[in-house]
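Intended use. Records like the one below are meant for learning the mapping from a protein sequence to its folded structure. Do not use them to infer anything beyond what is encoded.
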Amino acid sequence: MLIYNLVIKNILRSPTRSLFTFVGTFASALLFSIGLAWLNGVYDNLISSTIATGGHIRVLSKNYYAKEMTFPIEEHLSQVDVISNSILDSNNTQKTNLQLFPIIKQRVLLSTPKNKETSQMSLAIASSKDYQSQLFSQSRCQSTLSNRLGVTVGSKIAKQLQVHVYDELVVMGRTVDGSFSPQKLPIHKIIHCDNYIINSLIFFDYETGLYMIDAEQAATEIVVFDEGDSVDILEMEQRLKKLDLSDHYSGEPIEIILEPWYKRQPLAEILPLSILMNGIFALLLTLMVVISIMNPTIMMVWERKGEFLLLRAIGFSKRQIMWLLFFENFILTTLALLLSVFVGYFWITTQSVGIDISNSVTGLPQNLPFSTMINPIWNPTQIPLLVFSFGYLASVLGTIMPLYRLLNIIEHPYEILRSTEK
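Structure written out for the chain above:
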């Protein structure tokens, strides 16, 4: 009981010293929590942008996958309904968690009737309105909108072609047999998204895409979103292998490939490096914060050298002195860590603190979905746990290491008194 009374008295007896320790711990822990939130934001940016554009799983033919960089429309999936139903059946206990969107991708030549000399190659994506709405929402797109039906144009393409809403756009695509299929479509929306790749694309509805490639039922890929992480990929692959699918022209069996988001290129190559870099930054941040918390604690111990030596002289054991200082620091550290977590959470979740890197994405791969607006992400379990774990570790080390050394310098009362007089 005596030690507990001394703990409270020591904290209140020297408010300047206690405040110095509290503020040092608070500032370091706050920096740590905000730094972790930014590292989470960078890592999540890669993953969420990739999933937003291509779903959790892509379903496509093996031949298309092998030639994907050329967007070979002739290697499309021709039995979309059969494949989609098989995917749902393989996860029939979790059907409500799956969303399937067949999409058609192809390179098209864009031009305008009013300026025929200006043309631009672009990737066109034909898909359902639901897929587009989900993609634009997750990619944080801003748009100009009209009530007319037509094509959605990325802001970069619109700027290059010098077009506006209500203008007409000539889209030169091709059919599955290789012939050209031009269409004149009105522009009903121009979008500008944080996901910079979308700004270089055009979108129109799935039915228009089928008409353009001259097919009754087709998709270059089927995008699968799994809301509940319930897809059993192995089971899905086995079921798809049993399907009797054949190419519309050659009659040869079509081999289906399932590509989860973490195997998608170039993310599959970049993700390990991103994890490594995040780990290095997290380690450096942790070391910096641990040292920053230890410093004021160590200084406090050495400043109270005379007090601890006097306690030794009047009969306090080393263990009692250590417990005395340990409880003092435990109280101050706990209050500082609680406040730092609260302030960090409030700052990250209520303030608009995103960083725009739109001027720095020129070096990124052109097929890597990446949001140009990076926002910190507060993990309600991970960040407080790490802050408290390393905060307490730094406090304990900063208390025990100098105090243990200090108390071992002088072992006998007369030496303590002589040292105190000096």
